[in-house]
Design a protein that fits this description.
Layout: E1 8-11, H1 20-30, E2 34-39, H2 46-55, E3 62-65, H3 71-84, E4 90-93, H4 112-133, E5 141-147, H5 159-179, E6 184-191, H6 205-215, H7 224-235, E7 246-249
Parallel strand pairs: 1-2, 1-4, 2-3, 4-5, 5-6, 6-7
Helix pairs in contact: 1-7, 4-5
The chain binds ligand 0WD.
Ligand 0WD binds next to helix 1 and strand 5.
């Protein structure tokens, strides 16, 4: 059965209790995993305070700052992991960013700086973190990232993030192909729309949720915990034959054309 006891899991992307990463953290913890989390550092320390408040009930082994734009912070994060644990088993990549300009208006108006920053944070970070995780996953491992159907089809206002997610999904496949011989599996979860800090930046997110409630076979969108359950499955031996895949956790919306 689903058992993550003795597995060490590093989870990125918790901003608050609505974050998908928090749903994943709770379900990995419930399955017995040891938990380490990263937070995005800011000058006033507000994110750190919030993340500590949210995760402390689970008694995490590690809470470390990591802005994925920083090579130093990524290296320091994995050095902290290596110091705390003899191995890493699970890496959850659950973060993304695009300036408002990338999520509204005309797609062709997106500036180079806004484009590159979004791809740096939302797409390249998976590859960079996988590189840092690889030597620590000495017993094999599971890497899971979060994506959205807007990386496959045009979804109104998703704009720049659609490009970032298309690149992310292809990164899953190339990373899976490289890391399979190290017994490291790499998969993505394509979640239905959920109200979070990040999704509130996407214009018309509530309309999208209502559309999914009308169209999806299950007639509803999904919860952070449902995404967390799929992540727990992808991190467990129950999914030992699965790598390089994007699994839709979206109430079935994707099949509706
Ligand atoms: O409907 C949704 N909410 C969906 C989200 C549907 C399908 C996929 N996703 C994806 C997102 O694109 C993202 O990859 O799920 C992932 C998590 O998103 P979320 O849970 O919706 O958003 P949120 O709770 O805001 O967490 C994302 C966090 C950031 O929060 P804010 O809102 O402050 O940007 O990503 C982190 C940060 O904590 N983050 C960073 N972490 C490290 N370095 C950075 C960075 N540079 N930038 C953002």
């Amino acid at each position: 059965m689903l058992d993550l006891k003795k597995k060490n899991a590093l989870i990125t992307g918790i901003a608050n209790e609505r974050s998908i990463a928090w749903g994943i953290t709770q379900q990995l913890h419930k399955a017995g995993a040891n938990i380490g989390v990263t937070y995005l550092p800011d000058e006033k320390g507000r994110f750190e305070k919030k993340v500590r408040e949210v995760v402390e009930p689970l008694n995490p082994s590690l809470i470390v700052p990591c802005d994925v734009q920083s090579e130093e912070q990524i290296d320091a994060t994995f050095a902290a992991v290596a110091e705390k644990w003899d191995k890493l088993d699970i890496l959850i990549h659950c973060l993304a960013f695009a300036d408002k300009e990338g999520l509204t208006g005309d797609f062709s108006d997106i500036s180079r700086d806004v484009f590159l920053k979004s791809l740096n944070i939302s797409t390249y970070s998976l590859t960079r973190m996988a590189k840092a995780a690889k030597p620590l996953m000495s017993d094999g491992g599971s890497i899971v990232t979060l994506t959205y159907i807007g990386g496959v089809r045009v979804i109104p206002n998703y704009n720049l993030m659609g490009i970032a997610k298309a690149g992310l999904e292809m990164s899953v496949r190339y990373l899976a192909s490289e890391l399979g011989s190290h017994k490291i599996r790499v998969n993505g979860i394509s979640a239905g729309p959920i109200r979070t800090l990040a999704s509130s930046a996407v214009g018309g997110i509530l309309d999208m949720i209502h559309h999914v409630e009308e169209v999806a076979p299950l007639k509803r969108t999904v919860t952070q915990i449902e995404v967390g359950n799929t992540a727990a499955f992808l991190c467990s031996d129950l999914s030992s034959g699965i790598t390089g895949q994007i699994i839709y956790v979206d109430g079935g919306y994707e099949v509706m054309g």
